Amino acid sequence: MHLVVLVFASALSVATLALDNGLMRTPPMGWLAWERFRCDIDCEHDPKNCISENLFIDMADRLSEDGWRELGYVYVNIDDCWSSMERDKQGRLQPDPKRFPGGIHKLARYMHDRGLKLGIYGDMGTHTCGGYPGTPMDKIMIDALTFAEWEVDMFKYDGCYSNATEQEQGYPFMSKALNATGRPIGYSCSWPAYQGGLPPKVNYTQLGEICNLWRNYGDIQDSWDSVLSIIDWVFENQDVLISAAGPGRWNDPDMLIIGDFGLSMDQSRAQMALWAIMAAPLFMSNDLRTISSGARSILQNKMVISIDQDPMGIQGRRIVKEKSGIEVFWRPLSGNASALVFFSRRHDMPYRYQTSLSKLNYTTGSYKIIDVFTDKTVMLKDSTDFVVSVNPTGVVMWYVSAPAKLNLRQLYKGGKLHHHTYDDEENAIPRVFL
Ligand SMILES: *[C@@H]1O[C@H](CO)[C@@H](O)[C@H](O)[C@H]1NC(C)=O
Ligand SMILES: *[C@@H]1O[C@H](CO)[C@@H](O)[C@H](O)[C@H]1NC(C)=O
Ligand SMILES: *[C@@H]1O[C@H](CO)[C@@H](O)[C@H](O)[C@H]1NC(C)=O
Ligand SMILES: *[C@@H]1O[C@H](CO)[C@@H](O)[C@H](O)[C@H]1NC(C)=O
Ligand SMILES: *[C@@H]1O[C@H](CO)[C@@H](O)[C@H](O)[C@H]1NC(C)=O
Hints:
The chain is of the alpha/beta class. Helix content is 29%, strand content 19%. The strands form 3 sheets. The protein has an 8-stranded parallel β-sheet with strand order 7-6-5-4-3-2-1-8. The protein has a 6-stranded antiparallel β-sheet with strand order 9-10-11-16-13-14. Strands 12-15-17 form a 3-stranded mixed β-sheet, with no helix packed on it. The longest helix is centred in the middle third of the chain and has 17 residues, at 164-180. Bound molecules: 2-acetamido-2-deoxy-beta-D-glucopyranose (5 copies). The site of one 2-acetamido-2-deoxy-beta-D-glucopyranose has 6 residues, from helix 14. It comes from Lates calcarifer (Barramundi). It holds the Pfam family Melibiase_2_C.
């Protein structure tokens, strides 16, 4: 099957219903506390890093002053360990008074004043994963109302200390409760991650109708092994996961750990590139106050962000798995463009991988290629062999324009692929090296 046919086929399959709150038509972007700051509540000894309103204010300042917000990174999301151990007299959740003296509503206002949004966290069980008060069935209405009163913009609903029956009731009920508040609140469901992430235990049709995004798999940790295990799981199960995703409904492979301690620059580019292929939410979990310029430039790369944010919202797939350890990933983009990622699992040295666009099933034509991380541009005919040099645990990522001088409507006349001739004076490059 040619790739262009695949585009049309997948475009049809995402015409499924999404949660009708009008939010997250492209994958949400922002910052999330958990991976980098965990449950550090020791503000006395670690005031800079503890889960407190100061941490979220610091991140909001960095997002709005260091060029992140303009690129789409607008959510500032609180994770576990924010609340007091006790509900208040009316039975409402309340923030820890020492660490959040201003309260959550004021923090939300702080975000909104800067063009940012605030996210908060809760758990379907008796307790959150960190042991704080949970939001089981009988607390769902009151907690949804509390979050709406605080003007929160997103809610992550974790699943520790709950069982499958409770989850079946609780996740849809929270969706209704959030809707009933009248405030559009992005809804992130950890449900599938607690049920193995796959059918028949997980019903992705239903998830897309009740949640804007969902975690399918285990938590990311600050290591390449962790990133690789997520990549492997997602692409091994791509046929199930791709059809689940679309505008308003996203698979969430978890946070970006670029700028932390565990990844080299090549591995950081690999995470960014493959998260964009996956149409993943882009939540950084790092310290934006001290991030290196190298990590920043990867996270702020406009072309990789625009690939992630492509309005068609079709999740990409792995199309080649070579014995050499090279893998090729592809994502269809709007305007008949596409993205390609060449990824190396090798541990020796940069590998010179030779292929052609026609071997990757691109239709006849001449394509403008932009290397996402070097900005190099080249014209490439589908039949021309090229070589990419891929670093160990690294990637080469391409934005591939629509084929020039080719009329696809004509190609598909009568529902059949017609071959087409065209002149290509401008592409006299015999062999391309990027
Ligand atoms: C190209 O299409 C052929 C025929 O459908 C298929 O067997 C092959 O796996 C495809 N290759 C890629 C890279 O998608
Ligand atoms: C609630 O759901 C209805 C029906 O699906 C939808 O029209 C409305 O926009 C939703 N409201 C919010 C706040 O999510
Ligand atoms: C799930 O928990 C509820 C209590 O909330 C309990 O009544 C039920 O038996 C449990 N179900 C399973 C399958 O463990
Ligand atoms: C999955 O959910 C959809 C929508 O809620 C429902 O129509 C369908 O029957 C469910 N599928 C299974 C196998 O339960
Ligand atoms: C793809 O190209 C065809 C033919 O040029 C055009 O009709 C169609 O609108 C394009 N699709 C998109 C999504 O731009």
